[in-house]
Structures are given as C-alpha cells and as structure tokens.
Amino acid sequence: MPDGSLNSRLDRRGFLKVGAAIGGGLALTVALPPALRPALAETQVSHRFVPNAFIRMDPKGLVTLVMPSAEMGQGIYTAEAMLLAEELEVGLDQVRIEHSPPDDAAYGNALLGSQATGGSTSIRAFWTPLRQAGAVARTMLVAAAAQQWKVDPKTLKAERGAVTDGKRSLSYGELVDLAATLPVPDPKSVALKDPKDFTLLGKPAKRLDSPDKVNGKAEFGIDVKLPGMKVAAIAISPVTGGKPKTVDEAAAMAVKGVRQVVKTDAAVAVVADHMGAAKKGLEAAAVQWDDGPNANVSSADIVRALEEESKKPGAVARNDGDAEKALAGAAQRLEAIYQVPFLAPATMEPMNCTVHVRKDGCDIWVGTQVPTMAQGVAAEITGLPKEKVQVHNHLLGGGFGRRLEVDGVAHAVKVAQQVDGPVKVVYSREEDTQHDMYRPYYYDRFAAGLDAQGKPVAWTHRIAGSSIMARYFPPGFQNGIDPDAVDAAAEPPYAFPAIRVEYVRVEPQGVPTSWWRGVGPTHNVFVVESFIDELAAAAKQDPVAYRKALLGHNPRALAALTLAAEKAGWGTPMPKGHGRGVMVQFAFGSYVSMVAEVEVAGDGSIKVHRLVCAVDCGLTVNPDTIEAQVQGGAIFGLTAALHGNITFADGRVEQGNFDTYLPMRIDEVPVVETHLIRSAEAPGGIGETATAAVAPAVANAIFAATGKRLRALPFDTDLLKSSS
Questions:
Q1: What is the pLDDT of residues 343-392, one digit of tens each?
Q2: How confident is the model at residue 414 (pLDDT cuts 50, 70, 90)?
Q3: For residues 701 and 703, what is the distance between their CA atoms, to the nearest angstrom?
C-alpha cells in the first residue's frame, strides 16, 4: 500500500475542519446506512455539538461517529468506535455510526495518504486521531460543566456520557449547547489516557454491525433500492483492451422487461426492470468482441517472460555486506526458484454500483474502500466538479483490495450517462472473476551460502513481477523499486551477515494487477520462509531452533516463534504422513509465528488439521476481532495455497465461477488457534497477517511429512503422490 508520508496527513486544519462550523449550534442532515437508522429513529434532532470531523452529539447525548474507514467484515466499525468511546468516556452502546463523505483532508488515512481502507492500517492510522477526537470532546464537555457549576474543571470527571463532581452530574446531552460555544483545543494539547487506565480498549467487545447482519437489515451496495431504479447486467470485453464488435439489440429488446441496450468503449449493458430480465437480455444480445492487441496472451507466455527477465539484475532494494563474495566462499551453496500465481480477490458480493447522472450532479451508491477515488473518477467521466458528485458508501461484502479499485464505478457511470434515472449495474459471478484485478504473478530466484556449521553467511533474493505501485500511486515507485513488491523480503526478520535483495519489474501483457489482501507480504513471506526452511534442512537442524539462532536481535519475533512452537507442541511425535511446519514474520506492523499440522495421503491430497498462531500486534483494541481476523485471514490464505490460480488463454481468464476458482470447502477448514502476546508497543495491523503466514507454514509441514519441497502455489498434489 502507498506510504502515507508521500501525501496528505491528518493535521490540525483537517481535524478541525468541521468543528470550525460551530456557532450557535449546527444542524446536519445525516445519511446513515439503513442498518443503523433504527437506533437513531428516536433522536432525529439537530447535532448541536460538532467539535471535530469525527463526532456529532445531540441534546439527548447520542454520539455519532463519522466513520473514516470502510467496514468490509474486519470489525473496524466496532474497533474505531472503541477508540473514540474510550477517550470520550461513553459506553460502546452509546455510539452510533455514520459513513463519512468523501474528504481526504478530514478523513484521510495518514499511512496511505488518502481516504482509503486497506493495508491493515485502519487502527494504526486512527489510533491517535480518534482518541484525540474523543479527548477533545470530553475536555470541552467537562469545561462546560465546570463553567455551569463555576468550579475548576480539574475537580470533575467524565463517565458513561456524563460529567460529575461525585455528588451531582450533568449528562452530555445537557451540556452540548454550552460546549458548542467553547473554543476547540488543539488535539495535541489534550492528554490521552495511559493504557493502564483503559476500560474498553484491550477487552472483548461485541461487534456493532453483527445484529443487523444476522437479521438481514444490513444494507450492502448490492442491496440499494431507489424509486424508479433500473437494473443492468453488464458484459465487459473478455480481453483487456478489447471492445464490442456486434450486438443483437433487437433480440435483447424483445425480452420482456428490457428497457435499453447501452454500449460503452469496452462493455455492453442491458438495462431492465429487474435482474432476471437484464441477464436474459444480455444473453440474447449475443455480443461479439474485437479482442484487440491482447488476443493471444497466455499464461505460458507470461511465465516465460518472467523467467527470462528474472535472469537479469534488478533494482537494489537491500544490499548489506558482499553477498556474492560470501557465496563464493561458503561451505555449502543452495539455490531455488519459487513462483506464485495470479489471484483474484473473489469477494462474496460481486462488483456492483448504482449511479444516477443528472445535468447538475451525480449520485453514487456503492461499497468502496476509496470514496474519494470513486468521486474523482465519476467527476472525470461526467465532467462535473467533484463537489457535485455524491458518494453514498455502504457496507462491503468483502474487499480484499478489490474495492481499492474504481473500475467498477467507472463502468457504471458510463452506463448511467445513457440512462434516464438511477441504474444499478451488477456483475455476474463469471464477469466478476474474469474482470477482477489480480495479485501479480511473481517469479523469485534465491541463493544462500552456509558455513561449516550450517549458519547462513549470504542471502540473495531477486523478485520479478508486476508493480502495482507504479500504476496505482506513481510517486511511491522510486528508483525502480516497488516498496510493496519487496515488503517482507527486503527486511526479513532474520540477521544475515550479507544480504542482497533485487526487484525486476515485469508487466504481464493484458493482465491488470492490483491489491489482494496483503500482496507483497503474502508472496514474500511464503518464499522467504520456505527458503529458510530449506537452509535448516540443509544444515540438518530443527526448523524452530534454526530460526531462533537468527533472531537474537529481534526479541518480539523470537517471542512469537517461541510461543507458537510451545502451544503447538513442537517436537512431539506425529503419525506417519503427518508433519509440522513453522514460519515467523514481521509484516503490517505486527509479529506473527504460525505452526501448521498437516497430513498428506498416498494420493497426494493435503489435509490441514491445525493452525497455531502467536500474534504480537502491539496494544490491542478488541481481542475478539483479532481472533476472528486471524481465523478469516488464515482460511483466505489457505484457500489460495490449496486452490487459487488465475490462468489465461487467448487473452481470456479461464476461470469463471466458484466451480473453477475454488473457495475452501467447510470440510477442509482446520482448527485455528490464536495466542495473543501482551505488548505495550504501538498497534500493528492484523487483517492480512494470517493470510501471509499460512502458506509457508503448510508448505514446511508438507516437507516435514513427505520430504518433498513444493516451491510453487497452489500446491501441486501430483508431486506428493506416493511411488508405491
């Protein structure tokens, strides 16, 4: 993900942007997601106290958090509400959520440089701003009570949405009007709680969004219903760079319920009264395509190009010591090639976007990780000023990086420009899979030298693959280095006397690449941890002991490894055909070690029985969310390791639905154990950590069970079949 140091940050100006509008009260029209509206139905009154961009408070004391991050299943609505509530001194049950409007200045993620949700950064980015927002509001409310009682604010304290002196109390609702007249203090001047005084943070909390997701009230982008809305099924050129050639419009219009056939530069959409008619009409349209310049692209050609380019020197991401000299003098030299495939995020909610384009404005209803980018692309296409484009964000039925892209919004806007009234554009599952944005295919070359005792004296790693950063955020691509492509490779957790890491940018013809729940680390942790395991095997040493010897400088990584091994029962006997594998990583600001227990049958089939994960993610917000994210991330990563593979033939993606791009089945899911390490360090990310950890742990367990090293994903079970 982009480095926030390269762009806008949440400064005092942005923090106070909304607060500056405070005068004699401020009335705002809020657009809560329907799932959260019932809780607010009794309090449809003016928000009288708006101390900053994040907080709205009314005379009944209801606190509305204007949520800077998108909720896509990671529990951020609850976790960020806890940050605010902790310092504001209200209960989590006293907080309601409102989606933030597009506004990089007020709601930008300082680590990403814009209003975006991704890279496991939400807690890291808003740990301080949201706590400061709560502390500022609390300070002002206490000051209001002190002014009303004519006492020193230091004699008062806030608790459960009220200010008290021990004998009397005033609710926040009773104080909002007076508080709104007071000067807003500089957020940096307001003292934050010492972690030892936390009453919410670090303790399990039930998710605020769960009840309405269970009872069906939650509204995702695909659930949007508007008066007069039409529905469109879309077909996009199956080859990147292609365009429609022929369309049987008459056949499409003959389908009952079809209202219109729309052609754009790269797609055809059939607009109808409902989805069934739209899909039948699109099928009847029998679209023929001009495939354009990428008609002959194949996976074999892409891999061949990567292999050739990987033989050439790359841009240097890390160069400590003289690795080539150390390799030449090593007692033992090892080399290996690793490969990981294209992967699709394959979110459960297929791509969709509802748009109403008018002469004087454009409204967009969508679930997106990047609302300002969605606003920007719509403005560019329509020619409208950005302020005339309204983005109504929704809950996301899975993001995984896919909704960091706005190609789906662009297609919908182009369709909507030709439709009178609002239109919801929905991808079929096949259209979604075959027009996804794919994690790059990477081709890695390793070499390492060991001394007579088996200790590494040199480590070289050359990564060849596409640069997402160069396209997505060009300022982040410097001196030929994509920082995401080398993440967790240029800075492995281990100490090597000599290390050289290079990156070779190779763009696959006709294949759009993008984020995928971790990208760089999900690739690099697999290859680095697998090759470290190869060194341990060559040295004839225990994999855990071998790693420990290289982690003396890294106490947090060492502690995670030690705990995971202990909880997994490392070293205890296992049945024939079973094995344990271990890995350790530092990625997304957190330290993780995972041990996998795997069984390999005679036919080569793999059964992962147990995953034991030790996590040091610094100060924690909601332990329940962390455990859920480790479980979900591990299953997501294991799905890819066992099944994930996007391939191309004749310029087309060969996979379509979940029968050919397989999700993990319930009988494949292992037990996932999570063990948290108490830490006073700054918070780290958690959403993508287990996704990166699981593949190497399983690969190393397969080696322990069979003696066979698998250097490519997904795992090729044919290589594991017994010869007997």
A1: 999 999 999 999 999 999 999 999 999 999 999 999 999 999 999 999 99
A2: very high
A3: 5
Query: How many other C-beta atoms are found inside a 10 Å radius of the C-beta of residue 302?
Result: 22
Residues 132-147 pLDDT 10s: 999 999 999 999 999 9
Q: Is the dihedral of CA 396, 402, 408, 410 positive or negative?
A: positive
Query: Within this chain, do residues 105 and 126 fall inside the same structural domain, yes or no?
Result: yes
Average pLDDT over residues 53-58: 96
Q: What is the pLDDT of residues 163-198, one digit of tens each?
A: 999 999 999 999 999 999 999 999 999 999 999 999
- Average pLDDT (41-60) is 78
Is the same domain home to 689 and 598? yes
Q: Are 393 and 354 in contact (CB under 8 A)?
A: no
Tokens of 571: 């070293």
Q: CA-CA distance, 340 to 493, in Å (whole number)?
A: 21
Q: 71 has which bridge partners? A: none
Structure-block tokens of residue 256: 């009952």
The structure's pTM equals 0.93
Kindly state whether residue 392 falls inside one of the protein's structural domains: no
**Residues 154, 225 within the same domain:** no
Residue 391's closest CA among 411, 414, 363, 412? 363
Q: Is residue 569 in a domain?
A: yes
Q: Is 387 within the bounds of a domain?
A: no
| Residue 388 domain flag | no
- In which domain, by residue range, is 460 found? 300-342+438-720
Which of 186, 214, 242 is the last residue in one of the domains? 214
- What pLDDT shows up at residue 48? 86
What span, in angstroms and rounded, lies between the C-alpha atoms of 283 and 16?
Answer: 53
284 and 419, same domain (yes or no):
yes
Q: Bridge-partner residues for 583, per DSSP?
A: 594
Using the CB atoms, write b or e for 523-556: b if 16+ within 10 Å: bbbbbbbbbbbbbbbbbebebbebbbbbbeebeb
Assess contact for 120 and 689: CB atoms under 8 A: yes
- Asked if 460 and 446 touch (Cβ cutoff 8 Å), the reply is yes
Q: How many domains does the chain have?
A: 3
Is the pLDDT score of 33 beyond 60?
no
Which DSSP symbol is given to 266? Answer: S
